[in-house]
Amino acid sequence: MSRPRRKQQMTVYxxxxxxxxxxxxxxxxxxxxxxxxxxxxAAFLSPEQGGGEGAVGRRLERVDRRLxxxxxxxxxxxxxxxxxxxxWLLTTPALPEPAAAARAQASARYExxxxxxxxxxxxxxxxxxxxxxxxxxxx
Length: 139
Fold this sequence. Notes:
It comes from Nguyenibacter vanlangensis. The protein is mainly alpha-helical. The chain has three domains: 16-45, no CATH class; 52-93; 100-133. The protein is built from five helices and no strands. The protein has helices spanning 16-29, 33-45, 52-91, 100-123, 127-134. α1 packs across α2.
């Protein structure tokens, strides 16, 4: 009487580069190629192991939440800028036509603003992050 086999044989076809990678890994770890493929499949199909479809789904959900926050923050930023521009246009009087000196000063201020913005962006720090730190938590 023969014993039933504990493992079932399966034939798979791999890309030559992937087959070489599996063979190299098996050689380095002193394991059979079957064991390397079995371990990889088990990790991929088991959501508890941090890999596989379950982990991919969780990661996609995290990315979706982050994108949602980015979209919200961008909307707030655009709305803030639009309100500021509207307020500025309503409260700032127009320059008289022969105001070349005022236009030159405005141009210099704009260049200074662009330089300041470039410096700030290069540091990686954002104003809204500083504002979040300055505001006390609500009770």
